[in-house]
Amino acid sequence: MLSVIRVLVLLLAAALVLPEAASAAGNRSGHHFHHRTVSVGSAFYFGSPWYPYGYYYPPYYYGPSYEATSLPPSVYVEKFEGKPDANSGEIYCPSAGLYYPDVQECSNGWQRIIRAADGR
Fold first, then answer.
1. What is the mean pLDDT of residues 86-92?
2. Which residues, 6+ apart, have CB-to-CB distance to 75 below 8 Å?
3. In three state form, how does the secondary structure of the chain look?
4. How far lies 74's CA from each of 84, 93, 118, in Å?
5. Cα-atom radius of gyration of the chain, to the nearest Å?
6. What pTM value is reported for the model?
7. Per-residue pLDDT, 75
8. Residue 84 burial (CB < 10 Å; 0-12/13-18/19+)?
């Protein structure tokens, strides 16, 4: 184990000394440029196996698709003004939960129920 450490120290020292000697011998113009590059690391990746290169955003969620339709609703409810009679159609009292003529007075107002022509 001690010999492995010695070899690594010698390699590191050689990496620091050799580029300086090579640049001094190869440069005759009087300009001295010193470039030192030391890489310390491993060829192995230690980290998350799912995101080795950064965080990725999740895909954008598009809601369910709906299609427009030209069909009217099967039941249409509108406010009814006045007092219902036999010709008023289907009249509902929401506070009593009953239809006219089963109830004669409605305290919160009447609603007219209009059903689709196809009977839905």
1. 88
2. 113, 114, 115, 116, 120
3. CHHHHHHHHHHHHHHHHHHHHHHHHHCCCCCCCCCCCCCCCCCCCCCCCCCCCCCCCCCCCCCCCCCCCCCCCCEEEEEECCCCCCCCCEEEECCCCEECCCCCCCCCCEEEEEECCCCC
4. 23, 19, 9
5. 44
6. 0.39
7. 86
8. buried
Tokens standing for 40?
């310390």
Six token digits for residue 38: 């030391």
Tell me what the mean pLDDT of segment 46-50 comes to.
60
- 64 has pLDDT over 80: yes
Higher pLDDT: 105 or 67? It is 105
Which amino acid belongs to residue 44? F
